[in-house]
Amino acid sequence: MSKPAESAAVKVIATNRKASHEFHIHERVEAGLVLVGSEVKSLRDAKVVIQDGWAAIEKGEGWLYGVQINEYPWANRWNHEIKRKRKLLLHKGELAKLGVKTRERGFTLVPLQMYWKGAHVKVELGLCTHKKLHDKREAKRAADDQREMDRAAKRSKA
């Protein structure tokens, strides 16, 4: 018998911090990944880069591109390709919905986070639109203003 608390444990492998700066995130979707053994071993060591990744829906299947999972040093000749495309595991309805949004409405699927959920590797995809330059400046200005207000509040307490 397995404990339900252990199977639901979430351990983050990698986070795409650049995504919130570059994109407006409208919706988040969790998907599984089809991986080979040496990729799983590398993910246990957190040897992954997801900043340059994106996902696409092609012929009713979801694919993850541009995610770099480094080679596992002890896998010898059975190692995997570092930047191969990887199949996403999504329900048929989710695939159809995401396919329509990316094709017709100009959204982009970007990996936001990769994590262990129990014994399975999951990737959190964001349905995003690109930010314009003025939006990025505005967000940076708002963050700076908030930081300054926090500092002033902290000084007044002391």
Q: What does this protein look like?
A:
Helices cover 35% and strands 35% of the residues. It is an alpha+beta fold. The protein has a single domain, classed as Beta Barrel (Small Protein B, Chain: A). A hairpin with a 2-residue loop joins strand 4 and strand 5. It is globular and about 60 Å long.
Strand order of the largest sheet: 1-8-9-2-7-5-4
Count of spatially separate domains: 1
CATH topology, anyone? Small Protein B, Chain: A
Number of helices: 5
Task: Note the quaternary state here.
Answer: single chain
Indicate the proportion of strand residues.
35-45%
CATH architecture heading: Beta Barrel
What is this structure's SSE topology?
Blueprint: H1 4-7, E1 10-15, H2 18-22, E2 23-33, H3 37-44, E3 48-49, E4 54-58, E5 61-65, E6 68-69, E7 86-89, H4 92-104, E8 108-117, E9 120-130, H5 133-157
Antiparallel strand pairs: 1-8, 2-7, 2-9, 3-6, 4-5, 5-7, 8-9
Summarize the structure.
The protein is α+β, with helices and mostly antiparallel strands and 158 residues long. The chain contains 5 helices and 9 strands.
Features:
alpha+beta; 5 helices; Small Protein B, Chain: A; 35% helix; 158 residues; single chain; two-stranded antiparallel sheet; seven-stranded antiparallel beta sheet
